[in-house]
Structures are given as structure tokens and as C-alpha cells.
Amino acid sequence: MATETIFSPELAARFDKLVTLYPLRRSALVPMLLYAQDEVGYLSDAVIAEVAARIGIQESDVHSVLSYYSMLRTKPAGKFNVQVCTNICCMLRGGNELFEHCSKRLGIGQKGVTPDGVFSLEEVECIGACSWAPAVQINYDFHENLTPESMDKILDEYREKAGK
Amino acid sequence: MAYLTTHPDVVPVISFRFGKGATSIDKYLELDGYKAVQKAIGMGPDAIIAEMKASNLRGRGGAGFPAGMKWSFVPKHSDKPKYILVNGDESEPATCKDRLIFEHDPHSVIEGVIIAGLAVGAKMGFIYLRGEYRYLLKIMEKAIEDAYARGFLGKNIFGSGLDFDAISHTGAGAYEVGEESALMESLEGKRGIPRIRPPFPAVVGLYGGPTVINNAETLATVPHIIRMGGAEYAKLGTERNGGTRLFCLSGHVEKPGVYELPMGYNLKKMIYDVGGGIPGGKKLKAVVPGGSSTPILTPDEIDIGMDFDQVAKAGSMLGSGGVVVLDETVCMVEFALRTMKFYRHESCGWCIPCREGTDWLEKSLTRIHLGGGVDKDIDNIRYLAENMLGRTFCPLGDAAAMPTIAFVQKFRKEFEDHLDGKGCPYAKHEELVGA
After folding, report:
1. How far apart are CA B45 and CA B365, in angstroms?
2. Most buried of the four, A93, B189, B343, B355, by CB within 10 Å?
3. How far is CA A105 from CA A149, B144, B183, B360, in A?
4. C-alpha Rg value of chain A to the nearest Å
5. B104 in Cβ contact with B133 (< 8 Å)
6. Which of A3, A23, A158, A14 is nearest to A81 (CA)?
């Protein structure tokens, strides 16, 4: 791979290895996009161009794949992406109310980002926390058996982490 | 973070190492780990498959296909490499069991993959986890690294002269990818669109090679079967439904949780005894027995054993083991709508009946729920759903249609109560939030 990269040296090294693990290079595409998004925040044109070059496919191919996966985004989200599940099991235990609560509290709607860039909000489909509903994922961390009160506490903790 | 809930009726087979620190390879070895794979090396392929068939283990992903049978479809000789693919894209709403396996017993998945590899002659396994399960991916990566360090993976495993490689892989958010052919597409770096079958994956699968695709729970069960013997395992369950499975109890029960219970366990008992009944002294309205795609059951239909055959006889499916309990306050139209909203969102759009069907069904259900529906809408919903059945390349179309037909059939009165501007008699929400 070219020495010029937009990624950190660690991530670039990880990608160098990742493409060699599979019988076909292209198999690394989806994980690569997700890991790149974790570092950069979203899949910018520069990310897509470098990933395409690393795999050896067209950028349009990368676009076609990334548009399929709901976790991949081409616009920045907040530093902490609050993903509220409202699917059936969460809905039965207050998932919709929790989403509304977060929306009011953060002052943003579906896929909105707070002006300070700390939080974004997303209503998501089942995240696999059905027996501990209602549940929310903030970035990759699960928060379960939530109430509006416990949710407030969690949001406060994240705001503190952001230093704002 | 995810944990198993206890109850006196729990039979810990898959879960016997949960909560005991078995993510550590030393602890796993101490708890009889990697003994089954060594036994399997001595047994050889035919004997492994015979044990699997004797175990009556049926696929825990949802379809309930006999696992031993699935393995036996892989041709003995193949010019292309064979593969094992673990389906850990757990995404069926109401299902949260594979999470526990990855979190508490990752080595059992690796051991199951190696045994499957020995049985069919594959030398490489892929463990695919849904993208949301990042913390589990890290646990899995560490487990694989440890297994390589001990020589349990790589060249000449356990000094057998056989090689076996395994890697973990992350998805990035897609329910559809839980369907086996879409799963292969995704692993090959493409959109998760299903493939036309035949050929089936056992013959032409990943990278064109014969591939065994099993749910994570199915493969994590394999070492236990080899350890205890297929016949012993089978005895834990019912006829043609061997062993135990992880049931995910959710919704309106006092004690929701994941419980390992024998196949054939009574559904009513599961709700009232294991789950502690309905909170607040409310009445039971309905039960979804096996994940959101399975037709709903009414209270008079739940005195049944939870195995694939008995639930099928009751007109539904055991599915992925996600049992959702609904009390009397639930609006069935809203529940049907939320279910459909999910399938509309997840439809990959390849087949027209699914792409258009889920969209129209969501629109019709929304209209009824908001009070703008007319009598004809109810019949149209049923007509649309019935015309999706069996007319799509993968089961997502069926998964959307089957529960919808049951909602209308069993709760028609409730749909009618919404008509002609009356709106939702249960109204808690103005309308469903979000996209």
C-alpha cells in the first residue's frame, strides 16, 4: 500500500493486514469501512477513495456497498451517537417514550446532531437487548433496562466525558 | 453485560460455563474446553456426522433444519476449498441469545467451528458478528488469538497433522445479512442481497466453495454434543428436537431474560412460572413465540411444548427462540405496524413483492392506526401479505407476511375498531416517531 494515508499509522497497519486475511481482498471491505468510520467519524470522500484503492475496486463500488449498511454514514454524527431501539420488545417497555425523552432532552430529532457536536440521536432497529428492554446503544456501548431518569444520568455522564 | 437468568428448570448445557470466566482460555480448558475437538479428531468425519444426526440438533437460527443433515450435504471431494461460516448476525427482533455465547463462552464457538471443519473437510472458518456487537468482536478476536497461541488453530492443530484457520468478521448493520446467502455476499464485501438457490451453500457457497453455515448457538452446541454423545444430548429434548436452547423472554413479564430450557418446554409455564407472569395483574393478550417473524399466538393457543414441531402444529414457528409477551394494553395494530416498519426498513429491495409489499403494508397499517383507514384496508392488508408469501428469493418477504396475516386473522376486531376516524382506542402516541 502507498505510504500516504489519511488514517493513523495503527489503523493503516491494521488495514494492510486485514486485506491479506481473506481468500479475496474485497472481503475486508465492510469491516474496513466501519473501522475507518470509527476513526474519522464518517465516510468522507477521502476515506472512500483510500478504501477503494486499498481493496482495488472503484469508488462507485464502495458507495454501492456502504449505502446498504445502516451503520455506515457519509455525514458526521455527534461524538456520541445515541441509538434508541424502538423495535417491538423495546416498544412494549417504553422505547418510544425513551426516544421522545432523548429528543426533548437533546433538542434534536431523528438523525439530528446537537449544535456543539456532542450528541446525535437515532431511532434504530433491534440491537439485541430484547430481554433487557428498553435499551440504547451509545456508540458501541449498551445501556439497558432504562427509564427516563436513568437515561438522563447516562447522558450527563457522556456530556461530562465530552468536557462540555 | 448480557447475562443468563436462573430458574430451577434451567438445564445448563450451552450455558454451563456462563459467568465462570471462560473467556480466559485457561478457564475454558479447566472447564473441559477443547476436549471435544480432540475427541472429534480421533472419531473422523463420518462418526462426527453420525453423532450430530443422533443428537437431533436443529438449527437455532430459526428454520430448525437438522444440523447433522446439513453437514452431510457437503460433497466429500471438492476442487475448491470448503468453509465454515458462523452466523452471528443476530438481528431478528426479540433475539438476544448469541450475545451471551460470544460474551461468556467464545471458545465454544471456535471449538464448534473446528469440529464442523473436521466433519466436512473444511480448513477455514469465519465468525461473522453483527456490527453492533463490537464489544463481542473484541472478545472473539482475543479468543481466536489465544487459540492460535496454544496451537488449537493454525497448522497441525493438536498435533493431528490437520490445519485449521479461523477469523472473526464484523458486519455493519443489516438484518437481511442474517439470511445465509446474503451473509455470504456480505462476507465477500458486497451488498447483502440473497443468492438464487439452488445451488445451495453446501455445494456452492462462500468464494464458490462448499460452505456450512450455522447459527452461532448451533455451533456452540456442537462441542457439548461430541462431549456427551449425540444420544444423550437428544434425550434432553423431545422427539426430533434434541437438547436445550436459549430462550429469550421479553415484553410484559415480571422476569424477562435469557433462559436455557429443554426443547419442548411448555410455553405457558415459561411465561407464568419461569417469567413470573404478567406484571401489574394484567391479562395476557398474545405471545410471539419465536422472534418477530413468527405468527402471534392467542392465550388459548399457548399450552404447547416449545419445539419446532409442536409450535408449527399450533400454526406458528419456534424460530430463533425470542418469546415476546403482550399484555392487554397493547394495541395490535400498533404492534403490527411496528413489526412491518422493521421489515420495510430491512427489505433489501431486490424482489418486488417484498420491496413493494412491505412498503404498502406499512402505509396501510399506518393509515388504519391513525384512524384514516377504511374497511377495505383490512382485506387489502391480508391480500397483500398472502401474495408476498413464497414469492421472494429469500425468507424476508415471508417473515414480513406471516405475522401480518396472523395479526389480521386473530385480531380483526381490533383493526375494525380503528376505522372511520375513530383512531387508536389504545392511543398512547400521536404517531410512531422517527423515519
Report:
1. 51
2. B343
3. 11, 42, 38, 34
4. 18
5. no
6. A158
Question: Beta-carbon neighbour count of residue B372 at 10 Å?
Answer: 14
B:110-129 residues touching chain A, CB 8 A cutoff: 124
| Spatial contact of B83 and B169, defined as CB atoms under 8 Å apart | no
Sort out which chain A residues have CB atoms less than 8 A from B434's CB and list them: 86, 99, 110, 123
Model confidence at B434, pLDDT cuts 50, 70, 90, reads very low
Report the distance separating Cα B158 and Cα B180, nearest Å.
31
CA A163 – CA A155 distance, rounded (Å):
12
**Is there a contact between B342 and A125 if contact means CB atoms under 8 Å apart?**
yes
- CB half-sphere exposure, B290, CA atoms < 13 A: 27
* Secondary structure (DSSP) of A43-63: --HHHHHHHHHHHTS-HHHHH
Closest alpha carbon to B211 in B113, B295, B287 = B113
The span from the CA of B167 to the CA of B206, in Å, is 14
pLDDT digits (tens, 9 = 90+) for B81-136: 999 999 999 999 999 999 999 999 999 999 999 999 999 999 999 999 999 999 99
pLDDT beneath 50, residues of chain A:
1
> Cell numbers 394495541 correspond to what residue?
B331
Domains and CATH numbers, chain B: 25-235 (3.40.50.11540), 244-327 (3.10.20.600), 332-416 (1.20.1440.230)
Half-sphere exposure of B38 (CA within 13 A, CB side): 9
Residue B93 contacts A where some CB pair is shorter than 8 Å: yes
Contact criterion met (CB < 8 Å) for A99 and B434: yes
- pTM here is 0.96
Q: ipTM exceeding 0.90?
A: yes
Helix (H) or strand (E) holding B259: strand B257-262
B59 pLDDT above the threshold of 60:
yes
- Residues of chain B neighbouring A128 (CB-CB closer than 8 A): 90-91, 95-96, 98-99, 130, 132-133
Q: Would you call A65 an interface residue with chain B, using a CB distance cutoff of 8 Å?
A: yes
Per residue in B370-405, pLDDT (tens digit) is 999 999 999 999 999 999 999 999 999 999 999 999
Strand pairing category for B83-88 and B211-215: parallel
Of B256, B429, B432, the CB nearest to A131: B256
3-class secondary structure, B302? coil
pLDDT band at B430 (very low <50, low <70, confident <90, very high): very low
Angle at which helices A45-55 and A59-66 cross, to 10°:
110
Please list every residue in chain A whose beta carbon sits closer than 8 Å to the beta carbon of residue B167.
21-22
Q: Where are the domains of chain A?
A: 9-66, 80-162
* DSSP assignments along A103-144, one per residue: HHHHT--TT-B-TTSSEEEEEES--S-GGG-S-EEETTEEE-
Residues A80-162: name the CATH superfamily: Glutaredoxin (3.40.30.10)
Q: What is the dihedral of CA B180, B186, B192, B193, to 10 degrees?
A: -70
A65 → chain B, closest CA residue = B191
Residue numbers in B near A68 (CB within 8 A):
174, 191-192, 348
Mean pLDDT of B75-80: 96
HSE, side-chain direction, 13 A CA sphere, residue A162: 16
